[in-house]
Amino acid sequence: MSQPALETVPADRSALVLFSGGQDSTACLAWALTHFDRVETIGFDYGQRHAIEMTTRTRVLERFPDVFEAARTRLGEDHVVDLKGFGRVAESSLTREQEIRMGERGLPNSFVPGRNLAFFVYAAAVADRRGLDHLVGGMCETDFSGYPDCRKDTLDAMQTVLNLGIERPYIIDTPLMFLTKAETWALTHELGGEALVELVLEDTHTCYLGERGERHSWGYGCGTCPACELRARGFDQWRNG
Description:
Elements: E1 14-18, H1 23-35, E2 38-45, H2 52-67, H3 71-74, E3 75-82, H4 84-89, H5 115-130, E4 134-136, H6 152-166, E5 171-173, H7 181-203, E6 215-216, E7 219-220, H8 226-240
Parallel strand pairs: 1-2, 1-4, 2-3, 4-5
Antiparallel strand pairs: 6-7
């Protein structure tokens, strides 16, 4: 029997995943494909220092149907939004060449002010036109760098704002919100087994410095930036207890 067109799936059974091509958003994509009948993705080019993020996300999306069966029938269109202007305004060590260090406010200078808030505004606009009620993000306030726009109370407020401002019953889903990185690795394995774990190891990108030279046990990266340290420590805790 042929599958119904994805566009006919009801909005409340449809989701838009904020997809960067990193470990967390890849886990969220697998989660969304497990929980929704129609899933689309959205990526943001905000002037990242390393274009590798935009190329790896395409590679991950291309390979997803090979390792995750639900993607073959549930994964729909990918959307890419140009936010380079925002990246120039909200400068950080992710958008210009500078050493990653802690700032006076107790936040690393990799914090891009308002980035996730801007992402959700644009995602909500796309979701409205595409008939999608759920917005899925990989934000987490357990193992994270302290970014205030990753906290649950921030995203709960954002959901309220979007519902009021667009008059659509959006639900912001953050399946990783209270998971450690070790638990995120475990969830990835639970959802897609070793095949999905291998996809994360080989094709996803998390490193702030854009390093793709050497593959470590936990994947590619410099091994010293905050993102790599979290990913490596979580992998070790998951594999070795």
